[in-house]
Structures are given as structure tokens and as C-alpha cells.
Amino acid sequence: MVRALMDDDEIAIEKCRSGDREAFRHLVEKYQRQAISHATAILGSREDALDAAQEAFIDAFKALKQFDSSRPFYPWFYVLLRNRCFKLAARKRETESIDETVIVAPNSTAQSERILALENALRSLDMEDREIVTLKYFDGLSYNELAERLQIPKGTVMSRLFHARKKLQAKLERVVAA
Amino acid sequence: MKDLTCEKVLIAMMAAADGESAELSPEEMKAHLSACAGCRDEAVRMQQVNEIFREATRRESTIDLWPAIDGRLVQRSPRIGWQLYAVVGVLLLGYKLFEMLPEADPGWAIRLAPLIIFGALLVVLRENPFRINTELVLEK
Questions:
Q1: What is the predicted ipTM?
Q2: How confident is the model at residue B140 (pLDDT cuts 50, 70, 90)?
């Protein structure tokens, strides 16, 4: 299944390299939801995430010639996406006031105040902590996968994840105690 | 028993809970927990945070980025066919043949023609030959 999906991408990428924009559309439509969600989790803002994802896709189109198509597309694209997020964040530091959740959505059984508290707690973390925590909890990435995505050693993944979780625990103390 | 720091034990417990290989054995973790109330509390809190995350999922967007991206790509890459390259090739070949004529004495303006043709080609292609591509360097 994964192989079939990769083959699909490989064909599209080959076509993109010869300037086929329609083939790139396939990649954008396939990965945009994931990209916007990941960018939102890093930036904490839907508007900024849309800008970052758009720029990252343009970067990917320009850089596809350097992409090793035997590897999966998204982890490679993710590096471009987070570069764009960090660049954008360096320019825009202000945080939006929150009256809706943009990072998390409730499962059917969830209480809305706990979800809002989780959203607030995540937003109060710094970008790197928010990124690693959401990749772990929502995408269920292993430590090796996190190391590849974030381009850091596995030991750093463990310690960064541990400290990010501790900060999150402190922010969620009131909700957890309730 | 090894002298274990609380942080080391908690990181090992986190790894075990995440289904990863932990640096400490379950016996070592248990032995530390039975003697350390702080770590026992911490382990409970870790569990409670995991519970909250189980109630949540990533919010997904239904916004379609393609129209905006397509617009940008069209702007960026004008449709250049082989004809343009053929015209440039013919012009440069013509210049070379003209230069080879024994009685030809082109002035300095004509001598600049190949450079002007090449420059015009770069303008049409919107390419900067001096641009350094730094976009793939991971920045923090």
C-alpha cells in the first residue's frame, strides 16, 4: 500500500520535473491537508499556516530536481515546510487571541473545555515544543521518525519531547486536577 | 543498584510508554519509583496528559491551496517552447558566420550582440545566473 502510494508520487514527481504543473497538482491535493495542519501546529495560526504551506509547495516545485524520488515525498517536503514556518515566525512574532481551536479538534466523547485548555496549553508552548508534541501525539511518529523529520539525533528527540511534555503538564495542571 | 537521576528514570518511563526501547530495565524503573514519591506523582501526571490527548485529534483544513499555487507557478514559469531556443541558436550562429567573413569588421556594438542575446534569454526565462540557492539549508 505504502509502496503503491510512493509509486504514485514518483510518477507525479517525474512529470513535475519536466514542468508538468498538473502533476504537481496531484501532490498538492494529496498533501495539503497534512501540510496545513502541521504548519498550524508549529505556528499556532491558521492564516500563517496557509501562507507557509503555499510557500513550501512553491519551494518544493522549484527543488524537485534535487529530490531523491526513491524516498517518500512528505518527510522531505516537511523539512521545507518547517523552514518556511520558522522563517515566517521570525518575521511575525505576535500571537493571535484565541476564541477557537485551530490546532486540535475534539473526538466524539471529548469535553469542549478540556479541548480548549489543551489548545491554549499547546499555543503557550514555544514552536519547537509544540511541533514535537503534536507530531508525537497526533501523528504517532516513532522517535526515529521524529529524528528524521526534525533532523536531530534520537537522544535529542527524547530529551526535547520529555521537556516539552513537562511544560505541557504544568500548563494543563488545572484541567488534569479537575 | 545504579544511582539513577529522576530525569533519567522519567525519560525511560516515557520511552517505554511510547513503545520505544528504554535505557533502563522495568526492574530498575520499578525500584526507583517505589523509593521516589516525586517520580510516582510525575508518572501519574504524564498519564493524565496522555488521557487528554486521547480525547483530541489534529484539526484538519479543507482549504484548497492549488488555485493560489497554480497562479504563482504560471507567473513564475512562462511557457517557453523550443522555438525560443531555436531563434537564439540561429541568431548566435548567424553572428558567428558573420564574424568569420574575411572582410567583416564589426564595430563594438555588434560585438556585444551575443552577450545581449544571452542576457535577453535570461530575462525571458526569469533566471538569475548569480543567484545562490540557500533555500534547502535547514534554518532554525
A1: 0.81
A2: very low
